[in-house]
Amino acid sequence: MSAEPNPSVLGRAAALLRAVAAEGEQAVTTSDLARRTGLARPTAHRLLVALAEEGFLDRDAGTGRWLLGPELFLMGSLAAERYDIGDAARPVLRELARETGESAFLSARRGDETVCLAGEEGSFPLRSHVLYPGIRFPLGVASAGLVILAHLPDRDIEDYLARTDLSTDWGSAHARPELSQRITATRESGWCVNPGLLVEGSWGMAAAVFDQRDEPRWALSLTGVESRFRADRRDELGSLLLRCAHRLSRELRLRPTGPHTLHPAPS
Fold first, then answer.
1. By CB distance 3.0 to 4.6 Å, which of 142, 221, 224, 232 could disulfide with 206?
2. How confident is the model over 199-237, as pLDDT tens digits?
C-alpha cells in the first residue's frame, strides 16, 4: 500500500527509514521501498544511497537490500534515555498477558500515527498477528490509535478528521461517521474495541496511558481471535486494561522531570 509522498526531502528520507524499520531484521529492496513510500524508484534509490553514506542505512553487498544502519543505533541509544518507558511497561504487559491469555502490547503516539514498541505473548494458542513491535498505523485505525485519538481534545480530533480520510486506504468502516461513533463509544467506556476491522476475526482492545501533562501518549492493548472477545468478556478485559493503564500512567507521572523528560513532541 503506497503512502502519500512527502514533498520535502527530509520527509521522503524519513518515510524510507520508517519503511525499512517496519521490516525489522528483514532486508528490503529498493523497489519495495519505493512502492511503500509512493516515491519514484530513482528518487528512492538516490535517497537510500545518501542515507547509507551517513550511516543511517546498511546495504547488503550480495542482495542489494537495505537494513537500518549503525548511526541509528547510536542515536537510538541516546534517545532511549528520554523516551523509553519499557522498564515501567514490561511488568504491566506481562500481567495483562498472564491474566487474560491474550497478547499484550505497548504503542506510542508519533504525530498522526501510533508505533508499537513492545509486546508480550499470552498463553492462548490462537493469536492475532496484526500487531507487532515496529508496525505503525494512523490514529483511529488500530485499537491503540483509536483510544489515543478519542482522548485528545475536541479541537485536535476535529482537525485530524478534517484533513484525514482513512477510508481511502482502510475501507468504509474507517469513514468519518463510523470513526466518530467509535470515538464517542470509547469516550463513554474509557477503553476501545476494534472488532476485526483490520483483519476479519482479529480483535483488539486498548486503554490510553497518559504523561505528566495528562496527554495520551501511549496505549496498552490486547489482541486475539474473535471468540476471545465475546460481549460477556469485554467488560472484564476493558476494566483490566483501564486499571493497568492507570497504574502505568501514575508511575510515569512520578518520574522526575528534567533533561530526560517523558514528553515526546506529538509530531
1. 221
2. 888 899 999 999 888 999 999 999 998 889 999 899 999
- Dist. CA 202–CA 75, nearest whole Å: 35
Phi and psi at residue 220, in whole multiples of 5°? -100, 135
Query: What CATH number is associated with residue 108?
Result: 3.30.450.40
252: confidence class by pLDDT, cuts 50, 70, 90: confident
The stretches of the chain forming alpha helices (DSSP H) are 9-21, 30-37, 41-53, 70-83, 86-100, 143-150, 154-163, 167-170, 176-189, 231-253
Sort residue 116 into left (φ over 0), alpha (ψ -120 to 50) or beta.
beta
Angle of helix 143-150 relative to helix 176-189, nearest 10 degrees, comes to 70
CA 106, CA 89: separation in Å to the nearest integer?
7
Please state, rounded to an integer, the average pLDDT across all residues of the chain.
Answer: 86
Q: What is the pLDDT of residues 4-22, one digit of tens each?
A: 445 688 889 988 998 898 8
User: By residue range, what is the domain housing residue 120?
Assistant: 84-253
Of the candidates 107, 74, 55, 127, the one whose C-alpha atom is nearest the C-alpha of residue 217 is 107
Residue that finishes a domain, picked among 32, 56, 74 = 74
Please return the burial class of 151, using the count of CB atoms within 10 Å of its CB with bins 0-12, 13-18 and 19+.
buried
Domain count across the chain: 2
- Residues 112, 227 share a domain: yes
| DSSP characters over 193-253 | EE-SSSSTTEEEEEEEEE-TTS-EEEEEEEEEEGGGG-HHHHHHHHHHHHHHHHHHHHHHH
What pLDDT, on the 0 to 100 scale, is given for residue 262? 41
What residues are paired with 95 via a beta bridge? Answer: none
Residues 55 and 157 in one domain: no
Q: Distance (Å, rounded) from C-alpha 221 to C-alpha 105?
A: 5
Q: Is residue 260 part of a domain?
A: no
